[in-house]
Amino acid sequence: MSQKEVQNMQLIQELEIEMMADMYNRLTATCHKKCVPPVYGDAEIAKGEAVCLDRCVAKFLDIHERIGKKLGQMSMQDEALLKK
């Protein structure tokens, strides 16, 4: 691999890490706000809160995956159009 290819790979990896960190932060903030009351009544997480968090995270990740697939399809369509 050339130096430029190595730099491009490193940049892509850094961007991917940044995107994953951003997704994690948004997921955490969104699901915490939705499922955990602002005033804690107990030191342990309640069963209802745990179920809410589990569902929230599952929905968040499902939507993230769907958007990723759609963007991938759109990107492939754009590439196909450019090759014509």
TrEMBL record:
It is a peripheral membrane protein. Pfam families: zf-Tim10_DDP (PF02953). Its main location: mitochondrion. InterPro entries: Tim10-like (IPR004217), Tim10-like_dom_sf (IPR035427). Residues 9-72 form the Tim10-like domain. It is found in: Mitochondrion inner membrane. It comes from the Eukaryota. GO terms for molecular function: metal ion binding. GO terms for biological process: protein insertion into mitochondrial inner membrane; protein transport. One of its GO terms (cellular component) is mitochondrial inner membrane. Keywords: Chaperone, Disulfide bond, Membrane, Metal-binding, Mitochondrion, Mitochondrion inner membrane, Protein transport, Translocation, Transport, Zinc. The twin CX3C motif contains 4 conserved Cys residues that form 2 disulfide bonds in the mitochondrial intermembrane space. Mitochondrial intermembrane chaperone that participates in the import and insertion of some multi-pass transmembrane proteins into the mitochondrial inner membrane. Also required for the transfer of beta-barrel precursors from the TOM complex to the sorting and assembly machinery (SAM complex) of the outer membrane. Acts as a chaperone-like protein that protects the hydrophobic precursors from aggregation and guide them through the mitochondrial intermembrane space. Mitochondrial intermembrane chaperone that participates in the import and insertion of multi-pass transmembrane proteins into the mitochondrial inner membrane. May also be required for the transfer of beta-barrel precursors from the TOM complex to the sorting and assembly machinery (SAM complex) of the outer membrane. Acts as a chaperone-like protein that protects the hydrophobic precursors from aggregation and guide them through the mitochondrial intermembrane space. Heterohexamer. Belongs to the small Tim family. PANTHER family: MITOCHONDRIAL IMPORT INNER MEMBRANE TRANSLOCASE SUBUNIT TIM10. This is Mitochondrial import inner membrane translocase subunit. It comes from Diabrotica virgifera virgifera. The lineage of its organism: Eukaryota, Metazoa, Ecdysozoa, Arthropoda, Hexapoda.
